[in-house]
Design a protein that fits this description.
Layout (H helix, E strand, L loop, with lengths): L3 E4 L3 H12 L8 E4 L4 H11 L2 E2 L3 H5 L4 E4 L3 H11 L8 E4 L6 H8 L4 E6 L9 E7 L5 H12 L2 E5 L5 H9 L1 H18 L4 H21 L4 H8 L5 H11 L2 H31 L1
Parallel strand pairs: 1-2, 1-4, 2-3, 4-5, 5-6, 7-8
Antiparallel strand pairs: 6-7
Helix pairs in contact: 4-12, 7-12, 8-9
The chain binds NADPH dihydro-nicotinamide-adenine-dinucleotide phosphate and (2S)-3,4-dihydro-2H-pyrrole-2-carboxylic acid (A1CAB).
(2S)-3,4-dihydro-2H-pyrrole-2-carboxylic acid binds next to helix 7.
Length: about 280
């Protein structure tokens, strides 16, 4: 791989920089990063990872065959407009923007582009992202393979149809937050029932890892695995009864649907913003 220009220097950008370097996929001198205006952040990335940082667009894009869009969706229109003259059809554009379609990116850039749209999650920071990726028709087989290699440096990478990416965003993009929410509840209850904080944390973490491994490796369904824990008249039955009475499973389903709808809404809002600008 030649050179990547990363536009946006936040947590997602850092996860990819770290993953690419740890896996020896690219030389640090070929990873170039820019952001809107936070020079301190660029200095941190330069100091920590030895990557190149700049606000000089000519230098940023010179020889770049990969461009990663890693700003917030609300900043996408202005950021892409700002760099559009440097984007070419030969480059591969990798987007991690929630809710922003490949068509919208081309519309902002006002030119056809080879784009992959992805939805990773913050577990990319520890190489454990669950990432879904879609590619448009201009992306070559070689670029698909490149993309897969890049995303596999931060975890699991699965190709899906673009129409499924909003649902993926609601499910696994936001997913870590749902799990942290559950962990918060487990931590609070551990404190209330008098368990020592550090011990409780270790037990909670191992319980989550163990349950995840069971779902991954067992041939049983998650429903069956839950039933296996639940002895008749026992503790789990008493606990699950409270969850059922409180409609917790339905609430989780509504939560994922709401996040999916929000991803769709964010994409539409950006389209509207563009229409308003043009009219
Ligand atoms: N966080 C998450 O869980 C996930 C996020 N995503 C997606 O990843 C993207 C990035 O998220 P995250 O890393 O959390 O965001 P951060 O807020 O951490 O970082 C955003 C970065 O974008 C930069 N930026 C803003 N405007 C511009 C511009 N005009 N030109 C260049 N850079 C600009 C900011 O620079 P400055 O600091 O100078 O303003 C900052 O470096 C989002 O689109 C999000 O939807 C995808 C999956 C999961
Ligand atoms: O909350 C968000 O919009 C981003 C996208 C997926 C996770 N975080």
């Amino acid at each position: 791989m030649n050179k990547i220009a990363i536009i946006g220097a936040g947590s997602m950008a850092e996860a990819f920089i770290s993953g690419i370097l740890e896996n020896g996929l690219m030389d640090r001198k070929n990873i170039w990063v820019t952001n809107h205006s936070n020079e301190e952040r660029l200095s941190y990335l330069r100091g920590t990872y030895g990557v190149e940082t700049t606000y000089d667009l000519k230098a940023l894009f010179a020889g770049a065959d990969l461009v990663m869009l890693a700003m917030k969706p609300k900043d996408a229109a202005s950021a892409i407009q700002y760099i559009r003259e440097y984007l070419t059809e030969q480059m591969l554009i990798i987007s991690v923007l929630a809710g922003v379609s490949m068509g919208t990116i081309e519309a902002i850039a006002e030119k056809p582009l080879a784009i992959v749209r992805s939805m990773p999650n913050t577990s990319a920071t520890v190489g454990k992202s669950a990432t879904a990726i879609a590619a448009n028709a201009r992306v070559s087989q070689e670029q698909i393979e490149k993309t897969k290699r890049i995303f596999e440096t931060v975890g699991l990478a699965k190709f899906v149809k673009e129409e499924h990416l909003d649902a993926v965003t609601g499910l696994s993009g936001s997913g870590p937050a749902y799990i942290y929410y559950l962990i918060e509840a487990m931590e609070k209850s551990a404190e209330e029932i008098g368990l020592e904080k550090q011990t409780a944390k270790e037990l909670i973490v191992q319980t989550l890892i163990g349950a995840a491994e069971m779902v991954k490796k067992s041939t049983k369904t998650s429903t069956q695995l839950r039933k296996d824990v639940t002895s008749p008249g026992g503790t789990t039955e008493a606990g699950i009864r409270v969850l059922e009475e409180s409609g917790v499973q339905e609430a989780f389903i509504s939560c994922i649907k709401a996040a999916t709808a929000q991803s769709e809404k964010m994409g539409k809002a950006l389209c509207k913003q563009l229409e308003v600008k043009r009219s």
